[in-house]
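Below is how a single chain appears once it has passed through the pipeline. First comes the sequence as given, then the structure the pipeline wrote out for it. We keep one example in the README because the format questions we get most often are answered faster by looking than by reading.
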Amino acid sequence: MRTEEILAAIGTGLWSWDSSSGTVTLDAEAARLVGLPAEATVRPGEEVRPRFHPADWEEIDGIVNFAIAEGTVAEARMRIVDEQGAVVRTVRTRSKPVPLDTPGRHTYVLMGILQEVAQPPEATAAQTPLTGDWRRSREAFLLDAGRALAEAVSTEEVLRVAGSLSMPGFSPDGLAVFGVSGERLTVVGHHGQNVGDEKPFTDMPLETDYPAAEVVRTGQAIYLESPEEYRRRFPATWPLAEEFGRQSWAFLPLISSGHTMGAWMAGFRHNVAFSPDERSVLSTVARMLAQALTRAGAAETERELSLGLQRAMRPSLGPDVPGLTVAARYIPTGGGLQVGGDWYDVIPLPNGRIALVIGDVQGHDVRAASLMGQLRIALRAYASEGHRPDAVLSRASRFLSGLTETYDLSDGEDRSDATRFATCLYAEADPGTGTLDVARAGHPDPVVISVDGTAVIRQTAGGLPLGVEKDADYPTTRVVLGSGETIMLCTDGLIETGGHDMATGWTRLKPVLEKNAEDLEELADALVQTVHGPGSHYTTGPLVDRREDDIAVLVLRREGARTRRTPGRRSAMTIAQAEPERVASARQQLRELLHDWADTEQVDSAELMVSEMATNVLVHTDGDALLVAEVMGERGERRLRVEVADSSDELPHKRRPGEMASSGRGLVLMEMLADAWGVDPRGEGKSIWFELYESAEPVELSG
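Resulting structure:
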């Protein structure tokens, strides 16, 4: 005998249901049991589903999900109905759900048996007609409900999840969540009623003879199985409930941390006897609902606090400054309160200039935000007193050191991580001349974008981060912006987010700076979008998303023509006597300025001449060297002019150095390598310059 014949003899059929395709496969006995012709068949789910009682079909989905989660067999009893909806038999199913690997979808194949049950469960009108294995059905429902409520992040979402819950065997048609405000009952939310139906129950005194009020007062659940019981126990408020036409009600306390925070009402259109199992399910859902509402309320309070802190700490860009255009972005990290230690500021100064400030306090927590707020106020105060950039940062460093020391000694506890530092860049800008005097405390260098869109890191002198040493020095570097040029200041979060370091992060940002240099607002947006992707919501205001580090970006442009028909780029830097290592920085800056120069040998020649000119100033004079490099003209026909000025009146002389001589080659090299060169005396000091023409043939040095 075949297996199918043996199973048919004992009233057992084989079936499978593919949730991805929606098809049901039945052998002859299974087809007979569900009321179809007794022959093997494959039918669409839409044809098979009406053969089962609607309540049982809804129940099976939760049972299957529970079986998948637990790795067990799905068991249930299901009633088979005829075309008029009358129950003709009850079958028992034992099926194994096999999950399918379908990207983005929760699908499975359900394979098992259908077996006729000789004695279906009895049910009365006043009782819920429970189907299937009640314990397994209840566990499956609670598993789904707990998962859904745990994932809800707002009160509105919790209420939406609560309204969508379909309880096994009995589903309420109306739900309401009541809260407590002082001595009054409020309606937090409701489902299954029309808008406005909640008004009579809103702002109700707790002394009112109403089930939800009594639940809040006593902390005990109230189950009302019929309208007569409701009218007998709560005659004063029965007229308010009567108009909804319900037959049974359950009012349960919402308890969190031992405190009754409100009540939950579930209303039913049919009579419910509220058996011990049903009361257990309702009580469990009420506990999960209370916990979900508590979490959501705490998260919403946290978000409100976060937004308030951001609004209080986020500076405005202030009034428009003639001659300058400014744009900025602040994006907090996604963890915690969405506040951190990064900030930017634009400060009007007494001398008519403006100060640009950008900084980053160590950490991403509330204390970092607190220190940032205090440090920002201190910097504003020092700047408003008229101090120069180096003095502003020196005072700020002492101020931050004092703050962290006070914190260390405040309560005598071990505060090994209490001492924190901050990086900062402070620039005083003159709108009239385009000069910026920059002082830097351990912060990334600024980036200058020339009129033709070329972005170059402008290396500046710097000191230790604020708060590391009380008496740290912060040398000042002068940066000159030409008409239409832009300077970008940022915190390290913009550069290093996504696993990048300073070098690779700059490589990622450089094409963005050069491509979007026309409009400052678009440039600021593009920088953030490059780091966080096109789906990021970024503004000068709050941002709720998970991020690795805070980001602050500040871009400033000196107004003037920005047209690619008259391209040009310019760079200037000071090389101090005490900083000969900056000669290497000058070479690197020149190479970046000439990144697209046609002939690399000319670039090498320019680097060599700059080294000679700057070194001669440091060796043969007592002053600093001011280097200015400028590229003008159309590509392929451009002209490079480099000037190195110093304060000495002594003019250089061309010499014929011997083979072993260590000096005397500077002017000889310039005569050989430059297309033009010269020495110009000035009122105080002199300027040595050379020019290279992109269209000219480079001079090759013989070995």
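The longest helix spans residues 276-313.

See the next section for the split statistics.
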